[in-house]
Amino acid sequence: MFFGENYLLSLMMLAPVIGSAIILFIRHKDAEIENRNVRSVALFTTLITFFMGLDLWAGFDNSTAEFQFVEKFQWFGDISYYLGVDGISVLFVLLTAFLMPIVILASWESISKRVKEYMIAFLVLEALMIGVFTALDIFLFYVFFEGGLIPMYLLIGIWGGVNRIYASFKFFLYTLLGSVLMLVAVLYMYFQSGTTDIPALMMYDFDVDVQSWLWLAFFASFAVKMPMWPVHTWLPDAHVQAPTGGSVILAGVLLKMGGYGFLRFSLPMLPEASIEFSWLIFTLSIIAIIYTSLVALVQEDIKKLIAYSSVAHMGFVTIGIFLLNTNGIEGAIFTMLSHGVVSGALFLCVGVIYDRLHTREISRYGGLAVNMKIYAVTFVLFSLASVGLPGTSGFIGEFLVLNGSFAYNSWITFLAATGVILGAAYMLYLVRRLIFGELDKDDVKAMPDLSLREKLIFAPLVAVVLWMGIYPNSFLDPMHVSVQALLETHFPAQMTRETTHAATIDTSSAVVGR
Amino acid sequence: MNGEIPALLPALPEIILAIGAMILLMLGVFRGNGSFTQVTNLSVLLLVICAAVMINEVGGERQVTFNNMFVTDAFAVFAKVLVYMGSAVALLISGKFLAEHKIDKFEYPILVLFATLGMLIMVSANNLMSLYVGLELQSLSLYVLAAMNRDRLRSTEAGLKYFVLGALSSGMLLYGISLIYGFSGTTEFDVLATSLQGEGTPEIGIVIGLVFLLAGLAFKVSAVPFHMWTPDVYEGSPTPVTAFFAAAPKVAAMALLVRAMINGFPALIDEWQQVIIFVSIASMLVGAFVALVQTNIKRLMAYSSIGHVGYALVGLAAGTQAGIEALLIYLAIYLTMTLGAFAAILSMRRSDGMVETIDDLAGLSETNLPMAVAISIFMFSLAGIPLLAGFFGKWFIFLAAVEAGLVPLAIIGFLASVVACFYYLRIIKVMFFDDPSEAFDGEHGRSVSLVVGTAAVLNSPVSFLLISSLAGAAAWAANSLLFQ
């Protein structure tokens, strides 16, 4: 650890806010120079935040399930400004900080109008996202969770595509509707327990009857955010209409808030209800995996296809979380991280060709392998990572989830594994239509290969995807103790069942090299 | 009653205000209409002086005077500070507009002062009689203000509508008061409270009287089903007058309603709670749904204010100290949002005069970004989205409701707020996503900019720093009301 041990999390939130304040005051009579300065400041700010994120990762103690880097100040009433990370949240903070500089770089040329506002919106969004993953006060969590809607609404609405207004409204209202029900639950929990402290609420025993209602209220919010079938319909719209940077953040980070919410609230605070409703989650997730994979198969729009694939991947995540065993939950977290990187990268890939041809229609492309060789390699790599090819990040998460589900119920494994096959089908079909085939369109022939800036964007993403696939322990180690503690404290019965199973099925440890 | 002069200190600010207003009236009469600016500035100064006297000399101790007709306590101080603020700000932002419409008559600030005096008496009323006197002083001044622009049909229509319906509601109020007096033998809140205590089922006459009283007061706070006048009056009145209507009188009438119910009829809580819950739900729903189809921004703000009254009433419906505290916090935040929003509406002017449809805001973010940002802050805050002050109001209100066991009410309220969010978002959409129309004329005066800027800052995340002290003050005020 190098600096700011006590206030590192606050500093990570403060840096983007300061950055956006500086951008606010950048003025120059030449608009080009002004925009360049704005972009540079934004990039610099996000890089600083990323380095603080690395510092956080380096300073994180893997051997304890306690919250670390804790900051706590009395705010008003019983509510306090309370931050901290544990093994479940630390990597999400890192993911956010990692994706932001990439997003800024990706918007370098594609955003030319209102650059200042764009960068400010993104920096504010970054601060709020970090806030969501680090807040240890339920009120604070809600403020960050909901507050993120404002910049995202503006990002989709101002810089989005043709149908952006419809998409921005749908995104905002859908998410808000889910969240207000959660807010009622939050109020009730505060009233019952007299505290808004998340660690204290985790230890509070809510009445079993009430738990079901509270669980459903939280479910309403997180299921929309995830998104789970059948409340996923806002996602394809939002993704298609959002600018590339917005899609990357939406897929990379915002969707993870739902899964994080389940892990942070539903599971530890409402354990009985979580067990009781796990059938609901499994049913919806399996429908999501199979149905949205089939839908993805027939999409004509590249972004829509990737959006539907996100819904399917999130189905794996929700299954993993509610398996209530170590492999399932670690697999779910790992899938979220991997999906954050991979789907973000895929949206960036789409952005690259969209910037050149200004269309997202699959049939307008074809044969890119001939004239855009580096691009083709990159795209195929990320597609395979999305499919879950061993050696890439996608494999580890899906494998752990399927392994965990095998210990629970082999039918779930069977049905979820169908989704993996369908996933391969739609991704490879996309690759065939986009990358391979005849290069017969004149405007496609004229498209140049990746520029240096674009290579710089993809290089870290490729590296991380391979790192996560080849040596996943760097990412599994921080979460291990926290996941164990979560299960041991709140689901002792499930733990004992798992250990008996572990005697018979002990393959996972061998494969991931633990 | 034995010929002694009653204690004047508790009512000192009101007395100063009454005398000051009359002096300013004389000044205006002698100097003619040219004295508008001077009288307005002196009126603002007078309001500030009265507020200072109230805080420094009267204080938050409970004191009664004039045969228990008039009470002052922490609750009154809190509500009166809001009233003073609302009136002073409304005066500040009106000058330019009135001058341009050639209605810059010196009577305007005087009428605002008298209306304010009425509101102060309402807040301090401890007796059904003083309640009525204060209410009428306020209402009569407001009727005239609504019809200020007497050469325009819409303004006179607004004034007339307001007057006829207002008179009707005053009639209902008086009828209710007479019933209550007939069945209980007193009009004094404290005596009413003790005499109604422990009677088992209350007499039907009292209950009917109470319902009439509530109907009359619901009219004054423009709660559904007595809201019909609000959109027309808001739209027809000159915009600064609308800004004034939306702020201070709402606060005063709400404070009056709270004091009458909590201090006068604590024993009948089961009866009035039902009425308040109904009125609150109806207001939230009407405010949310009817506003969806509005195109005029003043009408939209009228429905929005109906909705917000519904939210504030949730706090009263809870009937607990936490509920009253939440209501006061809500009113304080509502005041800043509304005044800011109306000041922003005042800046919507082009060379050919004022415009007030929502589409006129199109593309404001490209022609005047700071104003667009300020309006978005107000809209997101009115919608109750976290990060902005409006969310704190909703948080406290619904927390109180949940604590009082009114979970369904909280759920309905939140769902209504999602519907309401749609039209607030629409305004932001028009400003940020649509192509710009003709830019506004920047000449809206420095005081308007000042009010918009201050209100925007107060509603922005800066409110995170202020909420703690606001909650403390509200708790102090609510405490004085319940545990005398």
Q: If you average the pLDDT of chain A, what whole number results?
A: 86
Instruction: Report Rg of chain B.
Output: 21 Å
Main sheet of chain A, how many strands, which sense, barrel?
2 strands, antiparallel
User: What is the quaternary state of this protein?
Assistant: heterodimer
* Strand numbers in spatial order across the main sheet of chain B: 1-2
Question: How would you portray this structure in words?
Answer:
The complex is a heterodimer of chains A (514) and B (484). Chain A is built from 24 helices and 2 strands. Chain A is mainly α and 514 residues long. Chain A has a domain at 278-514. In chain A, strand 1 (68-76) and strand 2 (79-85) form a beta hairpin. In chain A, helix 18 packs antiparallel against helix 19 (410-434). The two termini of chain A are 26 Å apart. Chain B has 484 residues and is mostly helical. Chain B has one domain. Chain B is built from 19 helices and 4 strands. Chain B has helices at 12-31, 36-58, 74-100, 107-124, 128-146, 153-184, 189-196, 204-220, 229-236, 239-264, 269-291, 297-318, 321-346, 364-367, 369-383, 389-403, 407-432, 446-459, 463-482, and strands spanning 63-65, 70-72, 349-350, 353-354. In chain B, the strands form 2 sheets. Chain B has a two-stranded antiparallel sheet. In chain B, strands 3-4 form a two-stranded antiparallel ribbon. In chain B, strand 1 (63-65) and strand 2 form a beta hairpin. Chain B is globular. The two termini of chain B are 24 Å apart. The mean pLDDT of chain B is 88. The interface between A and B is medium-sized, with 34 and 31 residues.
